[in-house]
């Protein structure tokens, strides 16, 4: 456990703030174009969004508003010598535009495109021939639908050459739950009445080439929405519908990482799904299109509940498991949502180290002692790309620690924290971005008071 000294408080505060600042290393959506390609304008549908103010990020230019730490797009540009590059945004809110250019220069704009929309024109070949990262943020925070457009113009005077024939858009990355969409937390009771969410149904990867999705048509890499759902019973169902101005497709990845797809089960060319498993936890939803274009759409979620949902009682540190048995992620523990940044300030959770059944023979590598079937805690983690995660336990008995990571791997520790207490360090975004279940067990099967500590460190 890190000892936090008063003399380090200011440094800690600055490091925490910096963790949320724009970072070109976090980019995941890449495209490659030449100057010739962009002579025909290329547009990309996305969300203008921002969760953190950027005025305190120490950028060497004047900036304002809010943005996310990962760029929306990374473009690898070549053959830009005869051209200047114009980047602009059209959105449903007051959007901002931040670019890190090929020579690592930061450029920002707020309203140069008129109507509270941003526009940046780059003329220096050093800024545009190479990798550029683009963030589309908002002036006031929050999110809205937006369209980013890139276009080249000849730098020299005179009549431009005829526009070259269009070249195919490069293949986009397949949908992945390692990224998150707009995050919404809902219970089954919240969805007893249908809830609707505006979105943009958008193309991207051809789903027929994305193994495991079982889909056709096109969808973006990042889900449009990430829903954190709770209180669904074993016989309850979740109905999801997508209505759009075009031929939509609907792709869903449930909390148990199963893929579900539909094209035309709704009215006309609209999509609809009914899902009965993997509902408690994170459910990612992609609003795609069959033809690869984009159109306005509305997602609607509703729950079909077998029994009425009563208000949940106040949470207790650890719900007692119904019975013994091997640890399983098919059950959930006390649910906590956190980011890599929030866990940079160590978080402590009071609990009980206990175990109703022996875990020898449960298929967990190196496991000894006793644990309950249900996790002690279920964490939904995001923004973990820059961090490693330290998990440790302090207890009044010989405690054990079991973790099932976001990619389904099992980890076990007994005494690495000293004094018969466990500790482990997990590294890798694939292990940490998503649902992480934690069991605090005991070596002998006895129960005792315990504290679970979670803390991130920069990789």
Question: Secondary-structure map with pairings?
Answer:
Blueprint: H1 9-19, E1 30-34, E2 42-50, E3 52-53, E4 66-67, E5 73-78, E6 83-91, E7 95-100, E8 106-109, E9 119-122, H2 125-128, E10 130-138, E11 142-154, E12 182-187, E13 195-202, E14 205-206, E15 218-219, E16 225-230, E17 237-244, E18 248-253, E19 259-262, E20 271-275, E21 281-289, E22 294-304, E23 334-339, E24 347-353, E25 357-358, E26 370-371, E27 377-382, E28 387-395, E29 399-404, E30 410-413, E31 423-427, H3 429-432, E32 434-442, E33 448-458
Parallel strand pairs: 1-5, 12-16, 23-27
Antiparallel strand pairs: 2-11, 3-4, 5-10, 6-9, 6-11, 7-8, 7-10, 13-22, 14-15, 16-21, 17-20, 17-22, 18-19, 18-21, 24-33, 25-26, 27-32, 28-31, 28-33, 29-30, 29-32
């Amino acid at each position: 456990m890190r000892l936090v000294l008063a003399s380090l408080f200011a440094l800690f505060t600055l490091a925490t703030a910096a963790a949320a600042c724009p970072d070109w290393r976090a980019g995941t959506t890449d495209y490659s174009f030449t100057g010739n390609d962009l002579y025909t304008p290329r547009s990309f549908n996305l969300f203008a969004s921002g969760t953190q103010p950027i005025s305190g990020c120490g950028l060497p230019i004047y900036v304002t508003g809010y943005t996310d730490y990962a760029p929306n797009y990374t473009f690898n540009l070549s053959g830009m010598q005869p051209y200047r590059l114009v980047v602009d945004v059209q959105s449903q809110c007051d959007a901002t535009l931040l670019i890190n250019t090929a020579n690592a220069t930061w450029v920002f704009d707020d309203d140069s495109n008129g109507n509270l929309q941003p526009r940046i024109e780059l003329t220096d070949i050093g800024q545009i021939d190479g990798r550029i990262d683009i963030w589309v943020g908002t002036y006031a925070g929050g999110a809205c639908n937006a369209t980013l457009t890139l276009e080249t113009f000849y730098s020299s005077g005179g009549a431009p050459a005829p526009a070259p024939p269009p070249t195919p858009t490069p293949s986009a990355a397949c949908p992945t739950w390692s990224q998150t969409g707009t995050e919404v937390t809902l219970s089954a009771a919240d969805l007893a009445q249908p809830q609707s969410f505006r979105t943009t149904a958008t193309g991207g990867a051809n789903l027929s080439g994305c193994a495991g999705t079982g889909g056709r048509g096109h969808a973006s890499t990042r889900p449009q929405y990430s829903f954190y759902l709770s209180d669904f019973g074993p016989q309850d169902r979740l109905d999801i519908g997508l209505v759009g101005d075009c031929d939509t497709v609907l792709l869903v990845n449930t909390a148990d990482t199963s893929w579900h797809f539909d094209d035309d089960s709704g009215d006309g060319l609209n999509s609809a799904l009914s899902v009965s498993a993997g509902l408690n936890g994170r459910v990612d939803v992609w609003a795609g299109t069959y033809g690869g274009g984009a159109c306005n759409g509305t997602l609607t979620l509703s729950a079909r509940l077998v029994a009425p949902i009563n208000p949940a009682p106040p949470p207790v540190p650890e719900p007692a498991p119904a019975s013994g048995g091997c640890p399983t992620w098919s059950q959930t523990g006390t649910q906590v949502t956190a980011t890599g940044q929030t866990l940079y300030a160590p978080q402590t959770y009071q609990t009980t180290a206990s175990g109703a059944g022996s875990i020898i023979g449960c298929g967990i590598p190196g496991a000894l002692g006793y644990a309950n079937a249900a996790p002690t805690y279920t964490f939904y983690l995001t923004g973990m790309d820059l961090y490693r995660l330290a998990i440790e336990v302090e207890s009044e008995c010989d405690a054990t620690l079991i973790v099932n990571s976001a990619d389904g791997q099992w980890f076990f520790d007994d005494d690495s924290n000293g004094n018969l207490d466990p500790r482990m360090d997990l590294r890798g975004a694939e292990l940490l971005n998503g649902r992480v279940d934690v069991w605090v067990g005991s070596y002998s099967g006895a129960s005792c008071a315990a504290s679970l500590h979670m803390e991130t460190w920069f990789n």
